[in-house]
Amino acid sequence: MASLDTNTPPHAFPPSNKPWTVRRQTAPEQIMPPLTQRYQVAWLDSAGQVQDFVRMGPQVPLFTQAFTALVRGALLNTPNGPIAVEDAYPGLEIVTEKGVMQLAWVGSHTVLPGARGKPLYRLPVDALGVGRPTPDLILGTAARIVTRRSVLQSLIGADEALVPIGGLVDGQSVIQITPLSAVQCYHLGFARHVTFKVNGIELESVHPGTLDPAMGHEMQRFYMSMFPHLNSARDFGKLAMTRLAEHQVADLVAA
Prior knowledge:
Blueprint lengths: L34 E10 L5 E9 L2 H4 L5 E2 L3 E4 L2 E4 L8 E4 L2 E4 L2 E7 L8 E4 L13 E3 L4 E4 L4 H5 L4 E4 L10 E3 L5 E7 L5 E4 L2 E4 L12 H8 L21 H9 L1
Antiparallel strand pairs: 1-2, 1-8, 3-14, 4-5, 6-7, 8-14, 9-10, 9-13, 11-12, 15-16
Protein name: Hint domain-containing protein
Pfam families: Hint_2
InterPro entries: Hedgehog/Intein_dom
């Protein structure tokens, strides 16, 4: 029978009443993608003054979708007549479907020739009906237009919805194009999410939808820094109407 080793020091084993603990593993830190794109922002501050900055940011859909809806030359409706989007500024009054509202935010971004994932879309005059658009209109990847087709009731139980322009490409009324030179694109923000007409086509203002928590706190914080007139993502408010998902757009086009 083996004997106990009386030379074992008393501190070699933990006391029996000491609780066992497990080291908790922390989630890996989210890494910001490279800041390779230049974004320009102008906004109306709380004192009613126009502020602006130019900032580098990542080339990811969340960011580019906030800056690439309208292309230079698009015409906005104001109480005093049409104005080109490149001449719009925070504080300018724009006619929206909710009445005349002040622009609160203008974002812009230069799309370079051959930019991956950043096609443009041309709508010839009267492509979607008389005066829709007038004149020809070129839109960016972030553009969503309002549709009010009867089939929407069976699809989503509503009379109107927002459709991403890329889902309507047919080579005739909506034509995908690749810019041959640098093109300046824009997006517009108001006190809340609204729709407004551009060349007779009704489009939506900027809104990120629901920010994915998986992107990490640092990415969310950096994204919101592009919107200095807002305190948090909640300040974007509710969507003015439903945005169609990809499969719903396919059903809409096929109807």
